Amino acid sequence: MRPALQLLLLCHAGLFASVTPENVCERPPPQDGSELVGGQYFFEPGTQIILSCSQGYTPSGGSRKMVCKSDGKWTERTLKCIPKRCPAPDTPENGKVHYDNIVYKSNVTYSCNEGFILQGARSTECLHNGQWSNPPPECEPVTCGLPHIPPYAKIVYDRPFKGNITTFGFGGEYQCRPPMVLFGNKRVTCGADGFWTDPPECRLVLCPVPISIENGFLSFASQREYGYKERVRYGCPDPFVLDGPMDVECEETGHWSRTPVCRAPCTVDIKVGRILYKGQKIWIEDFKPNRVLHAEQIAVYCLNKERNCGYPATTQCFDGVLQTPKCYEEPSAETYKTNPNSLPSEINMCS
């Protein structure tokens, strides 16, 4: 045997004689994102190794070094490795994003709001390179065809559109052509299930023959039933006054809207004195014709005895009734003829 080979074998023999299994360090396992690169599994005391952060982690402090001690244990591992962060995931329009964290190996899931369908991956994972495994999905609206239009009806849509495809939430309002009346849902929308809400029904509504009114007349009205939205017109001869609408319409309930009445004029029931009518002071004998129309006002003059001054007291005609204010005292015929300037209408007015 050659001398060099003999020397090498003796050195190896001496080495194995001094190292025992009890003081050999085993390969440190991966821990908290750090690991040893390489394939060696056993290390002699005094051996120094260099740790690295595992794939998907980055160093954040501490020492990369560890030394095998004489008792077969490693010095304290101080290398700190933290997982890489991915960018905050985008929330899809008309959808939601759900996650607890956005670091390596974290998962994000997506969902869509009612009426929208998810197009793309429902989940994504944060990869070791700080990127997401899948792009965010999109939430596409549910589509409907065109709504059913019942007989005698039409739809006024929310906005113009083209083609025969509509999307979730789009809608409009039904209208019936008079004299038909709408019964059911007035509004229609494309639903989350891809179907339109139930359409209404257009039914014929008729109002009875319009009634005649006392002291009044109907203009150009036939004695027949009238359909929804049809109108008739009422009037009153002079001096009666129409109280209420001139035009009366057949409503969707099958009844006429408010029917007017003809209100009668009033007569001023004093014999002597002055009245105030339409801003003018008039002696009652000059008030011709003695007539005040319904809802018009007049004033008679009353006396404030304590202050010896006059004041107008107003009263209003209502359907042929005009009540004289209680404060009014009709003067005697003698006073009226011989001393008219002493009447409440002629003396100083109370301030």
Report on this model:
A 4-stranded antiparallel sheet has the order 28-27-29-30, with no helix packed on it. Strands 2-4-6 form a 3-stranded antiparallel sheet, with no helix packed on it. Strands 8-9-11 form a 3-stranded antiparallel sheet, with no helix packed on it. It starts with a helix and ends in a 13-residue tail after the last helix. A hairpin with an 8-residue loop joins β8 (95-98) and β9 (107-112). It folds into 5 domains: 37-83, no CATH class; 95-141, Complement Module, domain 1; 145-203, Ribbon (Complement Module, domain 1), CATH 2.10.70; 206-255, Ribbon (Complement Module, domain 1); 274-342, Ribbon (Complement Module, domain 1). The protein has helices spanning 3-18, 333-338, and strands spanning 25-26, 34-36, 42-43, 48-53, 57-61, 65-67, 80-83, 95-98, 107-112, 116-119, 123-125, 138-141, 143-144, 153-157, 166-167, 171-176, 180-183, 187-189, 201-204, 206-207, 217-219, 226-227, 231-235, 241-243, 247-249, 261-263, 274-277, 280-283, 297-304, 309-316. The longest helix has 16 residues, at 3-18. The chain contains 2 helices and 30 strands. With 351 residues, it is mainly beta. Mean pLDDT is 91; it is low at 1-19. It is 6% helix and 33% strand.
